[in-house]
Each structure stands twice: as structure tokens, then as C-alpha cells.
From TrEMBL:
<keyword id="KW-0833">Ubl conjugation pathway</keyword>
<keyword id="KW-0808">Transferase</keyword>
<keyword id="KW-0863">Zinc-finger</keyword>
<keyword id="KW-0677">Repeat</keyword>
<protein>
    <submittedName>
        <fullName>Ankyrin repeat and IBR domain-containing protein 1-like</fullName>
    </submittedName>
</protein>
<feature type="region of interest" description="Disordered">
    <location>
        <begin position="1"/>
        <end position="27"/>
    </location>
</feature>
<dbReference type="GO" id="GO:0008270">
    <property type="term" value="F:zinc ion binding"/>
</dbReference>
<feature type="domain" description="RING-type">
    <location>
        <begin position="104"/>
        <end position="330"/>
    </location>
</feature>
<dbReference type="Pfam" id="PF22191">
    <property type="entry name" value="IBR_1"/>
</dbReference>
<dbReference type="GO" id="GO:0016740">
    <property type="term" value="F:transferase activity"/>
</dbReference>
<keyword id="KW-0479">Metal-binding</keyword>
<keyword id="KW-0862">Zinc</keyword>
<dbReference type="InterPro" id="IPR044066">
    <property type="entry name" value="TRIAD_supradom"/>
</dbReference>
Length: 343
């Protein structure tokens, strides 16, 4: 629980359940989230970047992508007009039994404004006041984020929107503004710039890395396709969901699954289980912390599954108990990433 105020670098991300097929799909630079057995806690990973939980639902599958010109619509909602200065400070009810109050510094008060409210613990264990939390989430949204992640260095815990509403004491007006900004930011995260003309392109086929830029195709008088993963002109056959034929194009998620060390689950009596798994529903990478039972709840899609055999918990428990080895034994290392179908 460090007190460093250094800001962390960020990337863009994404997310929801009912994955209907499993394919090798790209997600470069992916971090993983560490989870407890059957708990929703997302503990800090080994890097200082956000875990790449893709926040907006994926676009419907299609044949190829189309260029979408910059929209001539009014600018997306900004939070700059909202003032959360100390003169408008919000304070916790000291009698609220749902809050865990602590003595100590406000760990999100990066400007040292000294808010008067008592400090309460977030799910990640860091102490906040409602105003400092509001300011931090406001800052994340202004920077284009659509998720809320702890601002302490080394802590990549993602807070649910419900937790933010509760702990930041968001007013109805603040909730409306936050939700509009979250939606707008998530929508922008679904596009990538064409390497040929830098026009925003939307990928509609989740199982094909080859995407088409109509602008370059017109300007070059010939079809121009590029790789969604390495952002270079497409080389090789298609459709492909793992990589193109450009040198160095690779799926970092699959590399992590292939090279992660084995883990020992003493409480379950299981050894040589890969320490990192892709959630069988949404594909986010998770690392079990080797405590409690073998079942975990995915912090992204909220689906519970067995970390050992990769079956959904209800199915696994038909043939084994929570602290017993699985009847179907340890599932091998995954060689593909499930695609989350939001339906």
C-alpha cells in the first residue's frame, strides 16, 4: 500500500459474457489480473499499466471493416465544466456501517487539498475521501479512460462503477455526466488509425486481423488492407486471428499463456497448473494467488470458473469438490483466447 504519488502510464482497453467460440485473437501488451479463489478482488499485477480489459462491447461480426469519417457531431461530453473543488467538498456519514473508516492520509489527494471528510477504504485497500475519489475519476474520464482504476503506483485494481458511485457520493447529475463520458470514451477505443492515412478504422470481424481502409483504397486506386495487431500493411493469407506474415507480429496474450510458470495449489492438492489463465468466457488474463479454493470469479465478465480444469464452476462441482483435484485433471496451457460475445 505505497504512498507514492507518481502517476502511471496508460493504454486503452475493453469487456462482457456469453463467449460462443474460442479463437486466437490479438491483444498486444496485455497485463493480467491476480484474483483470489472465488473472490472478486483484482490485485495489482506485475506492471504499472492498466490491465487490458476491453470496456466497450465488441462490434457485431462482419466481413470487413469500413472507414468512418470524423463525425461532424458536437464534441463528446467533457467534465471540465464540473468543479469538484474543496469548497464543494462531500463528506461521508461517520455513522455509515457500510464503510470501513481508517485514520491516515487521503491517498488520492494528489494536490494536497486536505479534505475534511473521514477516510474510507476502497476495495483495493487504499484510503480515500469522496471528493478526492471524484476528482481522480473525473481526471481518468478527461484523459479518455472508460474504466476506473486506482491511482496509486503499482496498484492496478479496477473499481466497479457501482463502487465509485457509492464511495464518491456521486450526485444524480454527476452520474449522468460520468455515464455519458464513459460511453463516449469506450466507443472511441474501438477504432485504430490506418497506418497508411491515419484515418480511424473500425474492426467488425473479431476473428480476422485483416482490416480494410476505404480511404487508402481510393487514394491508391487499389485495395489497401492492414493488420489490426501490428498496424502494418497486411502480408500473407487471410482470414487469420493470430498474426499476419509481417516480421514481429505476434499475440502477446498467447505468448504470456505459453511462457508463464507453473503454480502449485497446496490447498487443492494440484501441481503443475499454469499460473495464468485466459477467462473461458471473456478472454481476460487472470493469475490465481494460490489461496483458498480453485474457483475464481472473473472481475470483467463476473463468470465463475475453475482455474484448474477451466470448466464453469457448476460443471466442475458435479464431479469434484472445491478443495479437491478436478476429475478431468489440469487443463493444458491455452493456445487460444476466448472472444467475448456480448449478447
Amino acid at each position: 500500500m505505497g504512498n507514492s504519488l507518481r502517476r502511471r502510464s496508460r493504454d486503452a482497453y475493453r469487456v462482457h459474457p456469453n463467449s460462443t467460440r474460442t479463437e486466437e485473437t490479438e491483444d498486444e501488451g496485455l497485463d493480467w489480473i491476480q484474483v483470489n479463489g472465488r473472490r472478486l478482488n483484482t490485485l495489482c499485477g506485475t506492471k504499472t499499466l492498466h490491465p487490458r480489459a476491453l470496456l466497450s462491447p465488441p462490434p457485431p461480426p462482419g466481413i470487413r471493416t469500413v472507414w468512418i469519417p470524423p463525425p461532424p457531431t458536437p464534441p463528446s461530453p467533457t467534465l471540465s465544466d464540473c468543479s469538484y473543488s474543496s469548497t464543494e467538498e462531500k463528506c461521508y456519514d461517520p455513522q455509515d456501517p457500510a464503510l470501513m473508516f481508517v485514520d491516515g492520509e487521503d491517498e488520492l489527494d494528489f494536490l494536497c487539498e486536505g479534505f475534511r471528510s473521514r477516510r474510507a477504504l476502497m476495495s483495493c485497500g487504499h484510503a480515500v475521501t469522496p471528493t478526492s475519489l471524484t476528482n481522480w475519476c473525473h481526471r481518468l474520464l478527461d484523459e479518455g479512460e472508460s474504466r476506473f482504476v486506482c491511482g496509486q503506483t503499482g496498484c492496478n485494481v479496477e473499481w466497479s462503477y457501482e463502487e465509485v458511485c457509492k464511495m464518491a457520493l456521486l450526485t444524480p447529475e454527476e452520474k449522468k455526466l460520468f455515464e455519458r463520458a464513459m460511453s463516449s470514451n469506450a466507443a472511441r477505443a474501438n477504432t485504430r488509425p490506418c497506418p497508411g492515412c491515419e484515418s480511424p478504422v473500425v474492426r467488425t470481424d473479431l476473428f480476422n486481423l485483416r482490416v480494410h481502409c476505404s480511404v487508402c483504397s481510393v487514394n491508391r486506386s487499389g485495395s489497401y488492407d492492414f493488420c489490426w495487431q501490428c498496424l502494418r500493411e497486411w502480408k500473407g493469407p487471410d482470414p487469420r486471428s493470430d498474426r499476419c506474415d509481417n516480421h514481429g507480429c505476434r499475440n502477446q496474450s498467447l505468448k504470456t499463456l505459453k511462457n508463464c510458470p507453473y503454480a502449485e495449489f497446496e490447498s487443492v492438492g494440484v501441481s503443475r497448473c499454469p499460473s495464468i489463465r485466459a477467462c473461458p468466457t471473456c478472454g481476460i488474463l487472470l493469475q490465481h494467488d494460490n489461496t483458498e479454493c480453485k474457483n475464481v470469479v472473473c472481475p470483467r465478465c463476473k463468470v465463475e470458473f475453475c482455474f484448474v480444469c477451466l470448466k464453469l464452476t457448476d460443471e466442475c462441482l458435479l464431479t469434484s469438490e472445491e478443495f479437491e483435484p478436478c476429475f478431468s485433471r489440469v487443463a493444458p496451457r491455452q493456445t487460444s483466447i476466448p472472444v467475448w460475445r456480448n449478447s
